[in-house]
Amino acid sequence: MSWSQRIEQALAARRAADGWRQRIRVEHNNVRELTVAGQRYRHFSSNDYLGLSQHPAVIAAWQQGAAEAGAGAGASGHVTGFSRYHAQLEEQLADWLGYRRALLFISGFAANQAVIHLLAEKPDRIVADKLAHASLLDAASHSPATLRRFAHNQPASLAKLLATPVEGNTLVVTEGVFSMDGDSAPLAQLAAETQRANGWLLVDDAHGIGVTGEQGRGSCWQQQVKPELLIVTFGKGFGVSGAALLCDDATADYVEQFARHLIYSTAMPPAQCCALLAALQQIQQGDELRAQLHTNIARFRAGAADLPWQLMPSASAIQPLVVGENSAALALSQRLKAAGCWVSAIRPPTVPPGTARLRITLTAAHGFDDIDHLLEALYDAAHQ
């Protein structure tokens, strides 16, 4: 089969399965609303949970940083791309989250790939939650280590896998808040099982940082767990982009010396670091924003209780409404768009077959009228 034939076959199969993805050109996006093809929608697909991408202090900090340091870093951090702004952000993150070191990455995907690719060797094993993010599972499956997957959020399943001896080291991998189900990992139990097996725990807290725990310190802080490796990302609660690894001194030195994703990538723009420093300050002072977010979550869940679809048990900003088949999820998404609500349909392979869903995300920027309008549209669609 030629390259062209292979490509065409894959594309045809994707279309036939109602799994076709496409990027939508958004003309305007202010967290609460977006405009596509001249049509305004109430926006329920953003990960900007606190609305910080639109915060005046965050925007002003990015603008001032660009004026002072330019639009880009100009080089890898190992050449000349590591500025005082990068150093300040790393220091503040480490202090805030209680770690010796923080290392910045250009994205959460890059951070997860870098850490797992670097640490895992052939005698080792990686034991990951079955619903862990693709960036974690891809890195684990492409590493020389043995990958095993435990039942979602089931410490007993993890313990059973860890009971088997291993020649090398063990890395247990989970998320703090799961991106598609919106539920939280039982981190204390997972950490205890990992410690009994003399392993290390890696927690990707992309969807917990900023919105849970004291001062928004995230899932691990909330559950009083300190994993050896903590990944936090800045495209959700921080409202910007990028990521950081939190770890001890020796591990940070090891990553700096050998992690190719870090060494051979152009550094994050210094202006972005300035915006992130401003976002961090807003998060640390953001109790009112977090309270508003959780009020919005409670209002939506109370109103959605009688919908005919399965509302997953989530206390987070991610409220998955499981519809079932791809075509049904796409049709429901289109009916909501006709009612002025933008909610993306999520389909396999992002989620397991037969669990296509609407991934409804709520933010502190939403008003009660937004939530009530969405609920009305959902009930109307249910009775069509």
How would you sum up this structure, described in words?
This protein has 384 residues and is α/β, with parallel strands linked by helices. It is 41% helix and 17% strand. It is built from 14 helices and 15 strands. It has helices at 3-16, 56-69, 84-97, 108-119, 134-142, 155-162, 187-196, 219-222, 249-258, 260-263, 270-284, 287-303, 326-338, 368-382; strands at residues 28-29, 33-36, 39-43, 101-105, 125-129, 146-150, 170-175, 200-204, 229-233, 243-247, 310-311, 318-324, 341-342, 345-346, 356-361. A seven-stranded mixed β-sheet has the order 4-10-9-8-7-5-6, sandwiched between helices. A four-stranded mixed β-sheet has the order 1-2-3-13. α8 (219-222) links the parallel β8 and β9. It is globular. The model has no long low-confidence stretch (mean pLDDT 96).
User: What would you report as the Rg, rounded to the nearest angstrom?
Assistant: 21 Å
**End-to-end gap:** 46 Å
Report the mean per-residue pLDDT as an integer: 96
- Number of strand elements: 15
Low-pLDDT stretches are: none
Reading side by side through the largest sheet, how are the strands ordered?
A: 4-10-9-8-7-5-6
Helical percent range? 40-55%
Largest sheet: number of strands, sense, barrel closure: 7 strands, mixed
Q: Number of helix segments?
A: 14
Give me the secondary-structure category: alpha/beta
> Which outline best applies?
globular
Which series of helices and strands comes N to C? HEEEHHEHEHEHEHEHEEHHHHEEHEEEH
Task: Note the beta-strand portion.
Answer: 15-25%
